[in-house]
Known about the structure:
Layout: E1 12-17, E2 27-31, E3 37-41, E4 44-47, E5 60-64, E6 68-76, H1 94-98, H2 116-126, E7 138-143, E8 146-162, E9 168-179, H3 183-189, E10 199-202, H4 209-217, H5 223-229, E11 243-246
Antiparallel strand pairs: 1-2, 1-7, 3-6, 4-5, 6-9, 7-8, 8-9, 10-11
Amino acid sequence: xxxLPKGGLVKLKIEGFKKDDFTGTPRTIxxxxxxxxxKESYAIExxxxxPAGTQGKPQRFYKVKPGEFTLNLLxxxxxxxxxxxxxxxxxxxxxxxxxSLVPFQDVDASSDTGVNDDIKSLKEMLVSKEGTIHQPExxxxxxxxxxxxxxxxxxxxxxxxxNPQGYPIRVEVKLTCIETISDTLEKAKIAQSSPDxxxxxxxxxxxxxxxMTYKIYGNSKYYLEVAKANxxxxxxxxxxxxKIIFPPxxxxxx
Length: 254
């Protein structure tokens, strides 16, 4: 892409995959300039139901929602960012890069299209439907020791500067993403908790019946059936070391 000088130090890599298990040969976009901003957000949901006649009871865990994060990128072809070779020291952050600017360089109006092709490539990979899967690709973003596997939910493009021919030469891009996990990997993680089998679990400190039920069935709403199968009269006060039987559940009838 135009904003990655040859021999430059790659700061961030964006890869697009057709499969949700992130296998196969990806399309790759490499970014030289450090991300200006990276923000992660995680949310935990709790059941809001309270028994009749009660008030202020502890909230019961329901599920952890997929992580969300935003990433701000700068695309720049003005020439103010110096090219680096493999022997150059790594510039640690975006602010350090700004302090090393060189005077603005005129562009060749007859041939320069700025970062126009870069924007097209980002749009094609991140927000366009891929022909064989009929949806945008699965995205892996790698930066330092950060690796995110996600789907793009929003892409904001802010055009800041243009050359005399009208092509963008400085653009800020904000990506909003949600983490994703393949069906195969998800099934592998819960293989030992199949709802079609009978399971026996030992209560540990901090366990609640809705939480244990969620781990087995993927939904805490079956805890009353589990309580009935175990003849639990007071399922809100489980005892560490206690054995709980989780029978097969027919979810289609619930």
